[in-house]
Design goal:
Helices cover about 20% and strands about 25% of the residues. With about 150 residues, the chain is of the alpha/beta class. One of its GO terms (molecular function) is kinase activity.
Length: about 150
């Protein structure tokens, strides 16, 4: 199996590194996110491919166990300094917003950053099984619209 080619734009990489550096304690998720940055190819925002997941991208995903979801990859809320991660299967689909927020400081957020449409990741679930999650589409990507200031 070939490892997916991770691509992250320079602005996202810089902002994510500042987020990691601001962590108050040694956090496993921050370490995983920093490892993701090290593995990635960093490109200028205007050269970022429109079929890869970036910060503030709106995504359509399909999980082998969790079904279909639309999410927006985002930074933690600076007002509360908390990041409530989206959890597959934790809420009935009818109660989820059309596009649910997905925090970058979550296992799923970290795993999706830099992936391309059609690629998939395996995410362990609380019950000990795994969910294979595929990126079906990027419904909106800031870089594709020239929105580099977000």
């Amino acid at each position: 199996m070939t490892r997916p080619r991770l691509i992250i734009n320079r602005l996202d990489a810089d902002r994510i590194q500042r987020l990691i550096d601001s962590q108050q304690h040694d956090d496993e998720l921050a370490t995983r996110l920093e490892s993701r940055l090290i593995q990635a190819e960093i490109v200028p925002p205007d050269d970022f491919p429109n079929n890869h997941v970036s910060m503030r991208s709106h995504l359509r995903l399909t999980g082998s166990r969790s079904g279909h979801h639309e999410l927006m990859l985002r930074y933690p809320d600076p007002a509360s300094e908390e990041c409530i991660p989206f959890a597959f299967g934790s809420t009935a689909p009818s109660l989820q917003p059309a596009i649910a927020p997905l925090c970058i400081m979550s296992p799923l957020g970290i795993a999706l950053l830099g992936l391309a449409v059609g690629e998939q990741i395996t995410l362990p679930c609380e019950d000990g099984l795994s969910d294979i999650i595929r990126v079906d589409a990027i419904l909106h990507q800031p870089e594709a619209c020239g929105q580099f200031h977000l």
